[in-house]
Amino acid sequence: MKLRRWMLALAGLGVATAVAAQDLKSPSADQYVPRLGDIMSAAQARHQKLWLAGKAKNWELAAYELRQLKASLVEAALLYSGIPVGNVTTLEPSLRSVSDAIDAKDGRKFAKVLGELTEGCNACHRSMSRGFVVMKVPSDQQPFANQQFAPAARP
């Protein structure tokens, strides 16, 4: 049943086959497994590159970075069982909206839906007791311009 949910999550995100997912889920003792922080750092870089490509209207690059971002999110969920499937699948509508904006070559829509995707990332962080990791839509091209480093306001 759990494998079926993973397969559905992967199918919804348009990533690899169930066989590849099973390989990621059960690494052998000699197989390298990246740390979750490394996967998320790659996702953060892809998030910024996605924004930069969309802002520059390089839609082919934006589509590529979106695929890479999706793959990072799926990899994190597959390799780290503490990340609920729901956290990955709830991002699907936002990921699809970003993809639609890229396909339409609509910069205004792209900016809006990237903000929604970014909030989805933050919701996931909060649900995992990592609310101190706050993503934002990048404001410039500086490295890590897509992360807020000041502490989040306490409710």
UniProtKB/TrEMBL annotation:
Alphabetized UniProt keyword annotations: Signal
Record bears the keyword Signal: yes
Leader sequence residues: 1-20
Name the record gives this protein: Cytochrome C
Record lineage: Bacteria, Pseudomonadati, Pseudomonadota, Alphaproteobacteria, Hyphomicrobiales
